[in-house]
């Protein structure tokens, strides 16, 4: 499903989108993961392609059909996702971090399956993962590139969103409210697009393609001039 604006206003642009959720392995059969379906990131990819962009889609554990024409890079963990995004961002006009990146990973990986014994289990020690959005926002591998983050919050959505936008240093932050049943895995989404320039663009509940097109509408005016 591709809807709305299909003007080729992203023609000649390279856009990098991360989608899905990372999985941090504990042993060969177990991981720490999250409920991200990848649907919003894939909707961003399809709509960007419809608007003429070249799209690199860094896909973490997504069970969705590849959007026709996208360059899909499958990844598993946050560290792999960072590597793929940093590589693709080198010549990107815009980077959109729609993926749910695990904040932490287990310190140790057990090469063999962890076995149950009569003793109580040990706690799982964790270490921080790299923050890809903060890194890309700080480094801007290509001058003038536009960086977009996503945030799902459970309360004080706008206040948390504003603080997160400032902390990450991105240009736009798409914030939505989530709960047990809201948003994760659903086909629709409702959000507010916060701009580093202080703007707030509410996007009413609708298909994820509509939110994606609303994001591109905000990205287009921020893009650097096309190379002559
Ligand atoms: N993100 C990232 N790398 C991480 C964690 C998050 O690039 N290690 C990106 C996500 O892709 C998203 C944005 O940062 O675009 C916000 O993610 P979120 O989890 O809401 O932010 P955190 O800084 O991890 O804060 P929180 O404590 O709320 O999880
Ligand atoms: Ca997080």
Automatic annotation (TrEMBL):
Enzyme Commission number(s): 4.1.1.36, 6.3.2.5
Record's cofactor remark: Binds 1 FMN per subunit.
One cellular-component annotation, GO: phosphopantothenoylcysteine decarboxylase complex
Region feature Phosphopantothenate--cysteine ligase, mapped onto this chain: 15-228
Molecular function via GO: FMN binding; metal ion binding; phosphopantothenate--cysteine ligase activity; phosphopantothenoylcysteine decarboxylase activity
Chemical reaction(s) catalysed: N-[(R)-4-phosphopantothenoyl]-L-cysteine + H(+) = (R)-4'-phosphopantetheine + CO2; (R)-4'-phosphopantothenate + L-cysteine + CTP = N-[(R)-4-phosphopantothenoyl]-L-cysteine + CMP + diphosphate + H(+)
Cofactor list: Mg(2+); FMN
Residue intervals of the DNA/pantothenate metabolism flavoprotein C-terminal domain: 10-220
Keywords assigned: Decarboxylase, Flavoprotein, FMN, Ligase, Lyase, Magnesium, Metal-binding, Multifunctional enzyme
Pathway: Cofactor biosynthesis; coenzyme A biosynthesis; CoA from (R)-pantothenate: step 2/5; Cofactor biosynthesis; coenzyme A biosynthesis; CoA from (R)-pantothenate: step 3/5
Protein residues bound to CTP: 103, 113, 130-133, 150, 164, 168
Domain of life of the organism encoding this protein: Bacteria
GO terms for biological process, alphabetical: coenzyme A biosynthetic process; pantothenate catabolic process
Similarity-based family: In the N-terminal section; belongs to the HFCD (homo-oligomeric flavin containing Cys decarboxylase) superfamily. In the C-terminal section; belongs to the PPC synthetase family.
Role summary: Catalyzes two steps in the biosynthesis of coenzyme A. In the first step cysteine is conjugated to 4'-phosphopantothenate to form 4-phosphopantothenoylcysteine, in the latter compound is decarboxylated to form 4'-phosphopantotheine. Catalyzes two sequential steps in the biosynthesis of coenzyme A. In the first step cysteine is conjugated to 4'-phosphopantothenate to form 4-phosphopantothenoylcysteine. In the second step the latter compound is decarboxylated to form 4'-phosphopantotheine.
Protein name: Coenzyme A biosynthesis bifunctional protein CoaBC
Species assigned in the record: Yinghuangia soli
Gene from which this protein is expressed: coaBC
